[in-house]
Design brief:
Blueprint: E1 9-15, H1 19-33, E2 37-39, E3 48-53, H2 58-70, H3 72-77, E4 82-86, H4 87-100, E5 106-108, H5 116-124, E6 129-131, E7 154-158, E8 160-161, H6 172-175, E9 180-181, H7 184-196, E10 201-205, E11 213-216, E12 219-222, H8 223-230, E13 238-242, H9 251-259, E14 266-268, H10 276-281, H11 288-301, E15 306-313, H12 320-333, E16 337-342, H13 359-382, E17 388-396, E18 402-407, E19 412-416, E20 425-433, E21 438-442
Parallel strand pairs: 1-2, 1-3, 3-4, 4-5, 5-6, 7-10, 10-13, 14-15, 15-16, 19-21
Antiparallel strand pairs: 8-9, 11-12, 17-18, 17-20, 18-19, 20-21
Bound molecules: 5'-deoxyadenosine and iron/sulfur cluster.
């Protein structure tokens, strides 16, 4: 990190929610860097606090108000402190935030981040600023990057934003807007710049990333075509993508999992429920059977692929039989990892109006489901013991001399290797499987 200069201001960003928010926070920090802000790790002593928020579940949104409440003291100590709210809560509840929490100076929705410097100028002139527009221009083209900044070896890169699917539970189509894909040329340029700054693994992000269709040379590019073009970049060792919808898993993307060496054998493919009755009510437009068939085809292309998913329990009108169908689907697939949630009512979404499942029932179903997933997760991890895997090392571990990285299958791997530089990509022999990670020994290069 650059040395702090007397006239630089301190920026504290706290990020909630998905990886896209992590990426957006990095881009906002870089944009504000150009306006003289340097990032700091704590809100105390900051000149500006920016919360990059998530609206996906009720709890996520409520956290923001309690976090803002905690900044009262800081604002009293330093009246010049500016407080901003970005992200999906900003988009969904912009005016409401200003009303509920007068401490807030600035509210900016996810599609208006490139306007931050202007908004900040307004705030610095003593005004409040709110921008939740969906402007037609590509925000990323107007967000400066700092080419000199060294990056961690694994980076996110947003290629697609928004969603047109309108699942009955989900706020994303409202907070992130309609599906938009960035042009391949810009993505390739950004990827090359990341690699030049030390990045060796890129995770392509989108709320519906496999629906990607960017306007490029020769017409619309699919995600598979983009991945193949990215894999030509020297120095880029690994490519991943998330999050996908089963209905957009095209033949060319399945084929890429079979023959594109840089595409990692890990796929996050949410199904949400294993009951066709509930899937229909969720407006998912796929069935449990069509999902299972799809998994079969993906596994035929890449037998060792590790699958991950998202599940919602207690969706309105979910019966015990519906829940058992979800458990059956999980048993049939065998996940390496998964995220699961109790259904949370989101204002403005169709399911919010329907008959809700009792909270205690939701809690019990969540525990049952999570117990099964964790057994599967542990089994998938245990199967790695004795194998040689390739690991991209990202940071030092908690114990002295330990380095931690990720395997191709996204398992965290610890080795004892005090002198190993961050960013090394090395073969490791796995010797033990612990609760949330693997332990291994470094093999000679
Ligand atoms: N309640 C609970 N979980 C939800 N998700 C999205 N909306 C809701 C909601 N209203 C979950 C889905 C999605 C993940 C990002 O969050 O499983 O795939
Ligand atoms: Fe949360 Fe969805 Fe917004 Fe990501 S896009 S921050 S998951 S509401």
């Amino acid at each position: 990190m650059a040395e702090s200069k007397a006239n630089t201001k301190k920026l504290y960003i706290k990020t909630y929610g998905c990886q896209m928010n992590v990426y957006d926070s990095e881009r906002m920090a870089e944009a504000l860097g150009a306006s003289g802000y340097e990032q700091t790790q704590s809100p105390e002593g900051a000149d500006m606090i920016l919360l990059n928020t998530c609206h996906i579940r009720e709890k996520a949104a409520e956290k923001i108000y309690s976090e803002l409440g905690r900044y009262k003291g800081l604002k009293a100590e330093n009246p010049a402190l500016k407080i901003g709210v970005a992200g999906c809560v900003a988009q969904a509840e912009g005016q409401e935030i200003m009303r509920r929490q007068p401490l807030v100076d600035l509210v900016v929705g996810p599609q208006a981040y490139h306007r931050l410097p202007d908004l900040l100028a307004r705030v610095n002139a003593g005004k409040k600023a709110l921008d939740t527009d969906f402007p037609p221009e590509d925000k990323f083209e107007h967000l400066p990057v700092r080419p000199q900044a060294k990056r961690r070896p694994a980076a996110f890169l947003t290629v697609q934003e928004g969603c047109d699917k309108f699942c009955a539970f989900c706020v994303v189509p409202y907070t992130r807007g309609a599906e938009v894909s960035r042009p391949p040329a810009r993505i390739l340029a950004e990827a090359r710049a990341l690699v030049a700054r030390g990045v060796r693994e890129i995770t392509l992000l989108g709320q519906n990333v496999n629906a990607y269709h960017g306007a490029g040379a020769g017409g619309d590019w699919s995600l598979a075509r983009l991945i193949r073009a990215l894999s030509e970049i020297d120095g880029l060792a690994r490519i991943r993508f998330t999050t996908s919808h089963p209905n957009d898993m095209g033949d060319d993307l399945i084929a890429a999992h079979g023959d594109c060496e840089k595409l990692m054998p890990y796929l996050h493919l949410p199904v949400q429920s294993g009951s066709d009755r509930i899937l229909k009510r969720m407006n998912r437009s796929h069935t449990a059977e069509s999902y299972l068939k799809l998994i079969e085809r993906i596994r035929a292309a890449r037998p060792d692929i590790l699958l991950s998913g998202d599940f919602i329990v207690g969706f309105p009108e979910e019966t015990d039989a519906d829940f058992q169908a979800t458990m059956d689907l999980i048993r049939a697939v065998g996940y390496g990892q998964a995220y699961s949630f109790k259904y949370s009512t989101r204002p403005g979404t169709p399911a919010a109006e329907r008959d809700q499942v009792d909270e205690a029932v939701k809690t019990e179903r969540l525990h049952t489901l999570q117990a099964l997933i964790s057994t599967q997760q542990r089994a998938a991890q245990d199967r790695m013991v004795g194998k040689t895997v390739s690991v991209l090392f990202e940071r030092a571990g908690r114990e002295a001399g330990q380095m931690v990285g990720k395997s191709e299958h996204l398992h965290a791997v610890h080795v004892d290797a005090p002198d190993l530089p961050v960013g090394s990509l090395r073969k490791v022999k796995i010797i033990a499987s612990n609760s949330n990670s693997l332990a291994g020994v470094l093999l000679p290069e």
